Amino acid sequence: MAYREEDYLMLSGIQHFAFCRRQWALIHIEQQWQENEHTVQGELFHKRAHDGYHSESRNEVIISRGMPVYSRNMGVSGVCDIVEFQKAEEGISLHKHRGLYRVYPVEYKKGSPKDTDMDILQLTAQAMCLEEMLVTQIEEGAVYYGEVRRRTQVVFTAELRAQVRKLFEEMHRLYDRHYTPRVKWSKSCNACSLRDICLPKLGKTLPVERYIEKIIGEDTE
User: How much is the pTM?
Assistant: First the structure.
């Protein structure tokens, strides 16, 4: 199935979705957003990686910053922080450049490696878009973490690719229904910039109607 361009979802949303489906829906369906120190720092960190689309050459590596990508098959579009085209014996040809190049995407994150696959899934989705656009196979890429100042290599396994497809399919279903899932409160809610909008503990304790009745009752006592 090929999606129409007007139905594309934001590629970066897969990270929100993997973290919390409700957070993703509040941002991408209800268009709600609230900054905190983590989101501001993350935005500044990404601006250092790229500020608009451009490329440069270093030795036998062509570095493309802010490269737009998309996938008709998955119905998503977005921007890669960095895509390295590394000279190799096998790969793709590039306009105005001799030889062949392998494609190596690099995603920038301000923090340190996580226990979850959120960052890895986002990078895998970028690689899958690049594969579709450039008609090539991309075996691996990397996530660069600013806090530890090093890259973490990621191998794009069949399992990761299948998970990316599954998540995007679920995202499209929820988006088409304009449905915002309920949330189960967890410790990770404390670091979420949408905590005050989402009110996760409210959803855990009382339905909204009973909460309002409780507050009114307290005010009239």
Answer: 0.80
